[in-house]
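Check out a protein:
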Amino acid sequence: MQGINRFLNIEDVLKDAAKKINLILADRDDFEVKGQFNLPCSVCGDESASRLFYRIFNQQDWFPVEKMMNCHACREKEAFKVYQERSLQELKTSIGERLAKEYFLPPESLLNAGFSNYQETDIITAGAKERVILFTKSFLEFPEKPYNLLIMGNPGTGKTHLCVAMARNIKQKGFTVGFLTTGKLLSIIKETYQKGASKTEKAILSDISRLDLLILDDVGSEAIGGNDDWRKGMIFEIVESRSGKPTIYTSNLTDVDLPVAMGKRVYSRLHYNTKFIDLFTDDYRKNFQIK
């Protein structure tokens, strides 16, 4: 009952508010408060803002409890802005977690792949590692200036290892990264054609476009079997969906065979804003096992 009665006095209400607002006053009772009203709003200038002041007993000076309070309309706008920003951030985080779960699918054997445990076997592998590290640093420092990579080399030279190392470094900084083979991505899209599928082709392409970075591993291997026209057309759609977003492509095929496997239109599109890394060298795995 005593707790209720103390709020019957407006001064007690203001003192309680001051304690909650200003930590200096939280454990004190030796002060008085007063409010000033009809002050100009610091945002719109309307004379409907208010401010609380406090004064310690036996002192002459009054001090503001908090910064100038804006008018009611401006406070509502600011609150809504904060709400929007938090909601958008929560939504972005939720979408990022879902995209990572559905599209970050590197080989299990390379989940711990890093730049430090990449085995350089010659000047070619050393140069490739250096350029992938350079891309990673560039991405993290200048995300607004993206470019693509096409890493071509014979099987076993560590293309996938370098890409996983890159992906792990970038993911750790909070970016959303997709990692899967072209064949796996095409299979995911094909599943949308089944009756009762939970997603559509359009939804998959939308997801792909949202990724901060997409790594398409083993491009060209999907060319064996299947509807060739559909495959080439879909790869083109995938590449197009990534317009303006950095994408990494790896392939075991040469620059002679890759245009045939992907289609000249897609291969031509890959050249836009793309840097090439040549990794045609001795077998990486064999050298690793010998050591």
In short: DSSP finds eleven helices and eight strands in the chain. The chain has a mean pLDDT of 86. The first helix runs from residue 2 to 5.
